[in-house]
Each structure stands twice: as C-alpha cells, then as structure tokens.
Amino acid sequence: MTALTLSTAAAPGLRADAIVIGVAKGAASRSGDLIVAPGAEALDKAYDGRLAGVLETLGASGAEGEVTKLPAPAGFKAPLVLAVGLGAEPEKDAGFDAEALRRAAGVAARALAGSKKAAFALPVTDAAEIGAIAEGVVLGAYSFDAYKQTGQGGKDAKAKNGKAPLAEASLLGGKPRDAAHKAALLRAAAVGEELNRARDLINMPPNDLDPQAFAALAQTAAKEHGIKVQVLDDKALAKGGYGGILGVGSGSAAAPRLVKLSYTSGKAKKHLAFVGKGITYDSGGISLKPAGHNETMKCDMSGAAAVFAAVVAAARLGLEVNVTGWLALAENMPSGSATRPGDVLRMYSGKTVEVLNTDAEGRLVLADALWAASEEKPDAIVDVATLTGAMMLALGSRTFGVMANDDAFRSAVHEAAEEVGEPAWPMPLPEHLRKGMDSSVADIANMGERMGGGLVAGLFLREFVGEGITWAHLDIAGPAFNEGGPFGYTPKGGTGTAVRTLVRLAELTASGDLG
C-alpha cells in the first residue's frame, strides 16, 4: 500500500523520483490556453514563467487524465516533472473539483509505478483537497498481483509489467501538525485501503474464493478490527429456514454462508444495516448463461465485498454509528441438486417464491438477508448488488442505479454517492410492474416483465424489507467490474464501487445529517 505523508517542504529541495503538478484547459477569458494549476509556482518560476508553453510544445492540452513528462529544471533534487491534466479550469474564485483532483492523483500514481517516492504539488487550499488527492493516490496505485510471478519459477510478484506500485506519496501543501489535514489523510488511507480490499476480493478467482473462504476472510478482518462476526453455515441456514440462500447454493459443492458483521459504537444513536449480494461465481444455474457471459462472473460478489469493506472502514474510522453488514454468500452452479425453473422456495420471511429463472438468483439471497436485517429494526437498510443486466442497459458501465421506498432517502443516497465521486442515478419503483411477478402457485415469482427488469428486481426486494423500515437498493451491475482500460483512479477489473457511498452514509448518519 502506498504510504502517505504531508509536507510543507519547498519543491526544489525535496528528494523524490518525481514531482506531480496539475495543468488545465484555460477558460475562454484566457483564450483556452493551457494553464499551470496552483501548487506548481516554484516550478513555473524555474522555467521563467514559461512552463505552460513548454508543456504545450510537448503536446499537453490539460485534458483530464492526460500525462506529460519532462525533466525537472536545474536546482530541483527530483529529476522528473509529471504534469497531469485536470480538465477545464474552474470558474473564477472556485477551486478545482475534488473529483478532478482525485482522478488526477490516481492517474499520476499509476503512471509512477516503480517509483519509490513522488511529491504531489497539486492544488491544496483545505483538508477536503488533501483527502481527495490522498484517496486518489491510494486508489490509483492499486494493482492486483497475487497470482503473478516474475519469470518462470519466480516467487516475487510485481505490478505494472514488473514495476511495483508507487511506494510513497508526499502531499505538498499539507500541514503535518494541522488536525484537519491529518484527519483527512487518515480517512483517505482507511477508506482507500478498505476499498482496495474489496477490489482484491472481486479480482480473486472463484476457485480460491468460495463462500466458505469469503466467510473466513471476513472473520479474520473482524477479529483484527474489533468487529463482532457471526457465520451461519449450510446446517444453520437450513435450521433457520433461509430457503433463498440455500436454494441458490444447492447446485454447488461449495456450501453457502450468511455472514453478519457488527460494528458498534458506545456513542451511537443510529443503526444502519448494509446487505451485500455475494455470489462468488454465477454460472446462471440450470438457466445457464450463454457463451461469452461467464468469464467475469467472479465479480458477482461485488456487493458483499463493498459491504464488508464499508463495515471495516467504519470501524477503523471509529464512526459514532452502529453498522451491521450482511454478506449473503453462495455459488450458483448447475448440477443434479440445483434449484430448477419451476421450483418453489420458502424464504426466511415465510413467503414462497416460484423460481422461473435460476439466473435471477441475486434477489433470492438478498431477500433472506434483507429480512434478517429487518428483524433488528435498523434506522435504514441499504443493499448493494450486481443485480441486473437491465440496469447496465439503462445507465451504462460507470453509473449505478438507486431505488428506495422513500424518496427523500433515495435522494440522500444519490447525493452521497455523487459527493464521493461514485456516479449514480435515482430510479423509480413503478407499482404497475409488480403485477408481472404474480404467481399462480406461490406468493411471488422471481421474474416479471422483461422491460424495466432492473426496476422489477427492486420491487421484488422491497417485498422482503420489514414494515416501516427505510430502505435503498443500489444496483451496481455496470460499474462493479471494469472490462476496459484503467481510467482516473479506476483500474481494470474489480472497482470497489459503492464502498465510498456506504462509508459516507455512515458518516452522515453519525453526524445526524442523514435524518
């Protein structure tokens, strides 16, 4: 993990492998010329005020995510300057957006893989900007290398084509003795490291991360961070009547689990419950997925990974709110013992569900976990799931959908997501779509109308939320796994989306700002 430090040192005298600065597209009043962002004044002075011109000569435009390298001027102990694009110059007297700084820091951290130390001279005026830059560094430097070796028979895995992640980032302009700056740095490290924990879980191959292995990792982390943990194995699930989780997991040799993680604060006045879909591999079951749709299905536990990471982050931050995480873990496989289309499952709530499609399995495991969470009467429940391809069709690959049984809470969740840099969009729960799930043999079917399938899934889940409990559903099917190239601080593979939204919701609840 990249070490983070704050420094008031002058850039010329700082020993580092590189100095990172920001550049932006100038406003119309500047004729759109490239500008050098605040923080790089010493460098610009060393170039006799011509740094922007030099960078333009090298092809820099200030576009978001763009990287331009040039030798450091005489008198600087760092040999390299790395200029990263921040996008458009902000309006007069407005600072750079936190997300722009976060993304720029992430791009720079990834570009500096193999470096021991980099000094980040990006715009800093307050603790929020310190936090954004630090978080971007930790997330951008991430690399999953547990299964790589350097050469035949080698044992030392290294990242980025043999380059280890950036070892240390020093944030210039940060004040080591300023309480707010230190707090921002510590928060960024905790949230970033836990989000990267979620990424590791999502990227793990399913032959190493089955429900039992996931539960064991949760137990280890819980013990380390003072979190109470309870694991229900297949026998306990059968005794308790968790028909949804058992039904989904019945076709696999790897038995399902339900993991409960409880972080409690002695000063808490509110209780949040987070519920995560944890399908460690999704073949579709008897309703087998077609060729070309199986290769990334190790990521179908991204919701549970996000919930796990968020609970641990809340504990590390010592938030004054009780947070309970529920990880509904199963592997969805076809076999002679698998649930069949046409079977009826009796859920933990007592309701019966006719299974029309075994590939609509996430809602079945979530239904049991939602009812279990409801029994504790939390102030609010938020579930997170890679639930439907329909949501990807609606919102694309970088935005998740937010549904809720309370309009104000849906808006609050949406605002929290946007605040932390996780694109989200509020979605409705149209009542007319509920009728499509009527069953002639059970209380409800697990499928309804094809059009609006993401909303149908949300309506199904709502059936298993306790009466009077505020609830939101995050369908993260699009942004949970990045099959394209890295961008900003987002790597290829597991992204850890929703972790920061959940942590922010916990913070807002602790401060009394979430109602």
Provide a count of the helices.
Answer: 14
Percent strand equals 15-25%
- Strands of the largest sheet, in order across it? 8-9-11-10-14-18-15-16
Number of strands: 20
Average pLDDT number: 95
Helix content: 25-40%
* Content-based structural category: alpha/beta
What oligomeric state best describes the polypeptide chains here? single chain
Distance between the termini: 36 Å
Question: Which sheet architecture does the biggest sheet show?
Answer: 8 strands, mixed
What integer value in Å does the Rg equal?
Answer: 24 Å
Q: What does this entry look like structurally?
A:
It is a single chain. With 515 residues, the protein is an alpha/beta fold. Helix content is 32%, strand content 21%. It has 14 helices and 20 strands. It has an eight-stranded mixed β-sheet with strand order 8-9-11-10-14-18-15-16, with helices on both faces. α4 links the parallel β6 and β7. α4 runs parallel beside α5, α8 runs antiparallel to α10 and α12 packs across α14. The longest helix has 25 residues. The chain is elongated, with a radius of gyration of 24 Å. About 1% of the residues have low confidence.
Give a quick summary of the entry.
This protein has 515 residues and is α/β, with parallel strands linked by helices.
Keywords:
single chain; 515 residues; alpha/beta; eight-stranded mixed beta sheet; seven-stranded mixed beta sheet; 14 helices; 20 strands; elongated
